[in-house]
Amino acid sequence: MARKTNKTTMAVKMQAQSGVFEAPSPVTDIYPISNLQFSIQGVTVANPEYTGSVHKNGPDLAGKTISGSFNINMRPPGGADVPLADAYIPGRILKAAKFTESRVSAAIPAAPEAVGAATTTTVTLGAGAVGAASLYKGMALLLPSIAAQPYDQITAIRYYTAAKSAGLMELLAAPPVGNYQIPKQLSYQRSISESDAPFLSVKLWLDGLRYDLVDFRISGFRWVMPVSTRDGATTPTFEVSYTATIDDYDDEATPSVPALGATPLFKDGKLFVANKAVGGSNLSIDFGLRTAYPPDPNYADGSAGGELVETTTTVSMDRQAYLKAQFDTLAMAEGQAQYAAYAQWGYQSGKLVQVVVPDFRFGYQSPSLGQDYITETGDMYVDVFDRNVCVNFPYWG
User: Fold this and answer.
1) Phi-psi sector, 98: left (phi>0), alpha (psi -120 to 50), beta
2) Mean pLDDT along residues 344-352
3) Which residue of 140, 279, 338, 390 could cross-link 359, Cys pair, CB 3.0 to 4.6 Å?
4) 282 and 326 part of one domain
């Protein structure tokens, strides 16, 4: 009987030591994926020996490389409360791509507190907040006065000073009044520390055949966030490329994959660029990961596990084109100042997504014609700031 593509799944576990496989559970460490590519490529060495004829012997087989890609829906963790450390399985992928997991397990402060001085782009937090520069940078912030619906009352912090002044990722219609809280949240914040990104151990089932993959390294990472419209909808995804080493393989039935419910679509939310609410059809972030393999004869294939050696982050958009007086991207590119990009969607506590890019520089943006509307595309460049990209899953109520 032919093997079925849909009988495919993956289980993921953090790996403490290079070269040592740590078996993920087929029950608690499993997560649905899509668009899997799994490639086993031979490494060959040409045989230079003369054969006494015009014919050459085939190459010697020196080893193999394992690589591929897959997608994970940008599905928030859900539930009534912030998950325990490392419990959110897509978060393990994020950590392996050099993100730091941050859990705010209790709102700050515990009870809502009055805001201090405020403008349409800043708010001063009260006594219950800690006055440490950048402490809350990139995190979600609850301001009940800015909207009627709870999910619209959530915004995010672009910067935070020791004087407790929080810059906002969006331009508000009026300065906030009343109370504020930093809500409970699970956040993943881009780390620029010198520590190496961790390895993963992965079990991969392809309809009855299981591969145990050790030193599973994220070699490419993109967040793709298409806008869902009345004419069509597409799910926001994490696009992951990887390399790994086969530790073992065997025949084993594919375990059942949990049904985790619908993934929120990017609509009825917020998309702010440089303090302007903009229209568009797509937002993507490419983290530009590059991995390399140190030569090491102590390993079967002559190389140690892959190491992350370089990243360059680029934000891209397919955005509606505006008049110069409305949104002058040419001037912003010429000036090379830092601006913020912010996306948010979802309706429920634990099921809302925030994507926060506190600072980027515009590249030149090019108008595109041929469809019903004039659009504008181009790259935005993200420099090496800590927490230069964050994804948050807030909890409130």
Assistant:
1) left
2) 98
3) 338
4) yes
138 and 81 co-located in one domain:
no
In sequence order, the β-bridge partners of residue 20 are none
What is the greatest pairwise CA distance in the chain?
90
In tens, the pLDDT along 366-392 reads 999 978 899 999 999 999 999 999 999
Question: 269-292, pLDDT tens digit by residue?
Answer: 999 999 999 999 999 999 999 988
Q: Within this chain, do residues 195 and 153 fall inside the same structural domain, yes or no?
A: no
Q: Is 218 exposed, middle or buried (0-12, 13-18, 19+ CB in 10 A)?
A: buried
What residues pair up with 71 in beta bridges, in sequence order? 34, 239
For the record, the structure tokens of 280 come out as 């568009």
Q: pTM of the predicted model, to two decimals? A: 0.94
**Same structural domain, 123 and 197:** no
Both 157 and 196 in a single domain? no
Q: Are residues 155 and 33 in the same domain?
A: no
Most confident of 213-217, 291-295, 302-306: 213-217
Specify burial of residue 216 (Cβ count, 10 A radius: 0-12, 13-18, 19+).
buried
> CA dist 171 to 116, 120, 222, Å?
18, 6, 27
Query: End of a domain among 159, 182, 205?
Result: 182
Specify if 15 maps to a domain.
Answer: yes
Question: CA-CA distance, 50 to 56, in Å (whole number)?
Answer: 7
31: β partners: 10
The DSSP code for 7 is: S
Structure tokens at 233: 């909808």
Query: 3-class SS at 102?
Result: strand
pLDDT-derived band at 308, boundaries 50, 70, 90: confident
Q: DSSP per residue over 157-184, as a string?
A: EEEE-TT-EEEESS--SS---SEEEE-E
Query: d(Cα 198, Cα 73) in Å, to the nearest integer?
Result: 22
Q: Answer yes or no: do 156 and 245 share one domain.
A: no
Tokens of 225: 């966030």
Domain that holds residue 174: 108-182
Please, which residues have CB within 8 angstroms of residue 93's CB and are 6 or more apart in sequence? 12, 72, 200, 218, 238, 240
